[in-house]
Write a structure and sequence with these properties.
The protein contains 18 helices and 8 strands. It is an alpha/beta fold. It has an 8-stranded mixed barrel with strand order 1-2-3-4-5-6-7-8.
Length: 416
């Protein structure tokens, strides 16, 4: 049986700017990116948010060709919203307290027969009502903040030996290395949580040569006393960055042809664009086969672009971009942030926000962290306090996702 792709005409009147959502990565035990959990802001029309995202095209853009985990209440399960998604693209997260009756079982059965998957959420030591659906489940998720090791093992045994040989375990809210080690020892198959956005910094870590050159140039380019000639002399010592810059300036977007010098390329691109390009080059120079590391680079650039769009009186767009980027570079390079900031000269306001969480850009960092965790109410309050139209947050976020994808797909954003 194939679920039909329907149309919900009453959704056409909804203002898509009101859509507020965020994605959070889920990693397999081997480190591969399994997919994303998409979280929507709860509003009086929150139950329609998923359908909104489908009709607007947001859903396909944000999932990046990977399956997505979607929280699904009983009402949402029994309404027509899930009828308009390709079941192969979604994994329905069903709450632990979901009461399972024939109606629920029928919908779940049809969804799975059509190629979809379900995950049982918030399982604890005591069996949950939703576990009646274990025979259909592909995943079961446990909040490892709230459950002790012996209790987690009880959940594991019920899931793996409770009538569903195919179900696998996801450790949710992994915050630190101890929780990650425990989940690995118990035998979880997948993981998500802020630990993967904040891996432990290694004091002995160092930057790759391409990053050192780009950081040096970034600091110089933000100093109005440094001439283009001085930038040209430093850039000329790094063949990789020189090649990337010339390719960038010759791109269709800038339309420059027949360049005769590095200096000409610098004049064509301009200081502001040069600084943003160098910032991306810094992050993207962290080459790794690890999906976690690749996701960290993506998140850093995405956060930078997200904040850049929130410029307001007293908050410069370029500084917002750099604050967003550098706030995650310690995780990207496994290096303490103070050590990183010794390599580049940022403004006093930016440095104060990054190291002390004070000054005019501190609330922008708090906003980004709240939004990325799905704390939409707090994020909205912070955005409003910054003078930003909170109804556009979803639009800004999706633009950041799409822009980052383009930036990282370009050979100009990759270090050799």
């Amino acid at each position: 049986m194939t679920m039909h792709i329907g149309f919900l005409p009453h959704l056409a009147l909804i203002d898509m700017q009101q859509l507020c959502l965020v994605r959070q990565p889920v990693f397999e035990a081997e480190g591969a990116l399994l997919g994303y959990e998409i979280r929507f802001r709860d509003t009086e029309r929150g139950r329609l948010a998923f359908a909104q995202s489908l009709l607007s095209g947001t859903f396909d853009a944000i999932r990046s060709d990977l399956p997505v985990f979607l929280s699904c209440s009983r009402d949402q399960l029994l309404q027509d919203a899930i009828e308009i998604v390709d079941p192969r693209n979604a994994i329905l997260l069903l709450p632990g307290d979901l009461e399972v009756d024939d109606e629920v079982r029928s919908v779940v059965s049809r969804f799975c027969e059509a190629g979809g998957s379900i995950a049982l959420d918030n399982l604890e030591a005591e069996p949950a009502p939703v576990e009646a659906l274990l025979p259909y489940a592909s995943w079961a998720r446990v909040d490892v903040r709230c459950v002790e090791s012996p209790e987690i093992e009880l959940v594991r045994d019920r899931v793996l030996h409770g009538g569903s040989a195919k179900a696998r375990l996801i450790a949710d809210h992994v915050y630190d290395n101890d929780q990650f080690d425990l989940a690995q020892k118990i035998g979880f198959h997948a993981y998500q949580g802020s630990f993967f956005s904040r891996p432990e910094a290694l004091p002995a870590a160092d930057l790759p040569p391409s990053s050192i050159s780009a950081i040096r140039l970034l600091g110089m380019s933000r100093d109005n006393r440094v001439s283009d000639k001085e930038l040209e002399e430093v850039l000329a010592t790094d063949p990789v960055l020189t090649f990337q810059l010339l390719r960038l300036v010759n791109s269709a977007a800038l339309g420059a042809r027949g360049l005769t010098s590095i200096g000409q390329a610098l004049r064509v691109i301009g200081r502001n664009s040069l600084q943003r390009w160098l910032a991306i080059a810094v992050a993207a120079s962290r080459r790794s086969e690890s999906a976690v590391d690749q996701e960290l680079v993506r998140q850093a650039i995405e956060r930078a672009r997200f904040l850049e769009q929130m410029a307001s009186p007293g908050r410069d767009a370029g500084t917002l971009f750099l604050v967003g980027l550098f706030s995650m570079l310690d995780a990207v390079f496994r290096m303490p942030l103070p050590d990183l900031l010794q390599r580049v000269t940022l403004s006093e306001d930016a440095t104060q926000a990054l190291l002390e969480r004070q000054g005019p850009y501190a609330d922008a960092l708090s906003f980004a962290e709240s939004y990325e965790m799905g704390l939409f109410e707090h994020a909205t309050a912070l955005a409003t306090g910054m003078g930003v139209d909170a109804s556009r947050l979803g639009e800004f976020y999706m633009q950041a996702v799409e822009w980052t994808h383009g930036a990282l797909s370009s050979s100009m954003a990759k270090a050799a």
